[in-house]
Amino acid sequence: MNKVTHQTIRQSILERIQKGEWALGELIPGEAALAEEYGCARTTINRALQGLADEGLVVRKRKGGTRVCNMPVRQARFDIPIVREQVEAFGGHYRHQVLRKVEKVPPLSIRTRLGLEKGAKALQLDTVHLADGRPFAYEARWVNLKVVPQIRSAPFDEVSANEWLVQTVPFSSGDVSFSAVAAGKDVASALECKEGDALFVIDRTTSLAGEFVTTMKLFYREGYQLYSRL
């Protein structure tokens, strides 16, 4: 007998929705009823329903049950890029250089984004990522030392802050934006481009259990294209 997993239950519920067993906006059976039907624990049902909710196919409300979305949508997913992997995917040789690593009181805009008290210090980390010896991306990052004190001893001579944080520090939520900006003096110097050149930028802030972990801007050299999946 095949083991009942949250993935198989998620797929089964999805197929039942697609077949019209529950109409758009209709309340589907509760966790207890579904657990009995599928012969599994309620936690397994919970994970299956949460997976459907994350995909925008159902809406879950505490004490209000789970309903099929009136207009189910497909959501684009964005994986936090590890720059080394991006460079190597293009067949390039990766290397990074830490340009700045200092604990200091950040400017008000950064303090606000990290939820820091007045006078609290954060770790400023500026890194240039290289592909075959040429600048590929410039990373301007601030890290909340209250949440990630162990970053002080991270081996940045061996691994970039970008990769270390992705592999070491979990996060529960975040926000990300994409834009094109004119290169300022510091960015132009790091990427060996002209001031005013249009560059693609990823601006991201992540948090863990209600506390902000890090905020950063990742500037890519001219010509960079972002690929994602729908």
Structure explained in plain terms:
The protein is of the alpha+beta class. The chain folds into two domains: about 5-70, Arc Repressor Mutant, subunit A (Orthogonal Bundle), CATH 1.10.10; about 85-220, Chorismate lyase-like (Chorismate lyase). Helix content is about 25%, strand content about 30%. It is built from seven helices and eight strands. It has helices at about 5-20, 30-40, 40-55, 85-90, 110-115, 160-170, 185-190; strands at about 60, 65-70, 95-105, 120-130, 135-145, 175-180, 200-210, 210-220. The strands form two sheets. Strands 3-4-5-8-7-6 form a six-stranded antiparallel beta sheet. Strands 1-2 form a two-stranded antiparallel sheet. A hairpin with a 2-residue loop joins strand 7 and strand 8. Helix 1 packs across helix 3 and helix 2 (about 30-40) packs across helix 3 (about 40-55). The chain is elongated, with a radius of gyration of 22 Å. The mean pLDDT is about 90.
Total tally of structural domains: 2
Characterize the main sheet: 6 strands, antiparallel
CATH class of the largest domain: Alpha Beta
Q: What's the CATH architecture of the largest domain? A: 3-Layer(aba) Sandwich
Give the terminus-to-terminus CA distance: 34 Å
**Cα-atom radius of gyration:** 22 Å
Structural class: alpha+beta
Number of helices: 7
Q: Which consecutive residue ranges, at least 5 long each, have pLDDT under 50?
A: none
CATH homologous superfamily grouping of the largest domain? Chorismate lyase-like
How many DSSP-defined strands? Answer: 8
Overall mean pLDDT: 89
Q: Which shape, going by the Cα principal axes?
A: elongated
| CATH topology label of the largest domain | Chorismate lyase
As a percent range, the share of strand residues is 25-35%
The percent of residues in helical segments reads: 25-40%
Spatial arrangement of strands, main beta sheet: 3-4-5-8-7-6
